[in-house]
């Protein structure tokens, strides 16, 4: 009962009680709820993935791999923002990484919320989590 009174008082005063929100990341990335729980998504709501064969700050998804797993692109002049960093790919293009892990979408995800890439390549691909 006391909690309800305090909450009502705070709301009346214009103070909202909310869980800490994930700050929107670069390139419009944010968090969405999927079948795997909270997942990083791009500005279109498409699931972002990480690849076990990447090293911190370096993408090993090149050539044919990159056709199926497009990198989350970063502008040439983009800079780090907290847990978000920019890496340079082997072709010289820039890619966003979260906590050191390069981020990708998957071409077979057809709509926001799809997670069809999770666990592929003998478990090497994972939904990216905040």
Q: Short summary of the structure?
A:
The chain has 130 residues and is of the alpha+beta class. It has helices spanning 2-12, 64-68, 120-123, and strands at residues 30-34, 37-41, 49-51, 73-74, 84-88, 94-98, 101-102, 125-127.
Helix content: 10-25%
| Overall mean confidence score, pLDDT | 85
Q: How many domains make up the 3D coordinates?
A: 1
The whole-angstrom Rg is: 18 Å
Protein name: Lipoprotein with Yx(FWY)xxD motif
InterPro entries: Lipoprotein_repeat, UCP029720
GO biological process, one term: alkane catabolic process
Pfam family, one: Lipoprotein_15
SSE map:
Layout: H1 2-12, E1 30-34, E2 37-41, E3 49-51, H2 64-68, E4 73-74, E5 84-88, E6 94-98, E7 101-102, H3 120-123, E8 125-127
Antiparallel strand pairs: 1-2, 3-8, 4-6, 5-6, 6-7
Task: Describe this structure as you would to a colleague.
With 130 residues, the protein is of the alpha+beta class. It has one domain (22-127). The chain is built from three helices and eight strands. It has helices spanning 2-12, 64-68, 120-123; strands spanning 30-34, 37-41, 49-51, 73-74, 84-88, 94-98, 101-102, 125-127. The strands form three sheets. Strands 4, 5, 6 and 7 form a four-stranded antiparallel beta sheet that branches. A two-stranded antiparallel ribbon has the order 1-2. Strands 3-8 form a two-stranded antiparallel sheet. A hairpin with a 2-residue loop joins strand 1 (30-34) and strand 2 (37-41). The longest helix has 11 residues, at 2-12. Residues 1-21 have low confidence and may be disordered. Residues 1-23 form the signal peptide. It comes from Nitrospirillum viridazoti CBAmc. This is Lipoprotein with Yx(FWY)xxD motif. Keywords: Signal. InterPro entries: Lipoprotein_repeat, UCP029720.
């Amino acid at each position: 009962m006391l909690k309800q009174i305090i909450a009502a008082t705070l709301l009346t005063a214009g103070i909202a009680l909310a869980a800490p929100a994930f700050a929107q990341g670069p390139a419009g990335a944010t968090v969405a709820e999927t079948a795997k729980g909270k997942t990083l998504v791009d500005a279109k709501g498409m699931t972002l993935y990480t690849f076990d064969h990447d090293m911190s700050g370096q993408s090993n998804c090149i050539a044919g791999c990159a056709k199926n797993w497009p990198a989350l692109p970063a502008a040439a002049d983009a800079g780090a923002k907290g847990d978000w960093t920019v890496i340079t790919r082997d072709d010289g293009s820039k890619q966003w990484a979260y906590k050191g892990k390069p981020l990708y979408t998957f071409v077979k995800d057809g709509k926001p919320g799809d997670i069809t890439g999770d666990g592929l390549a003998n478990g090497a691909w994972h939904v990216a989590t905040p």
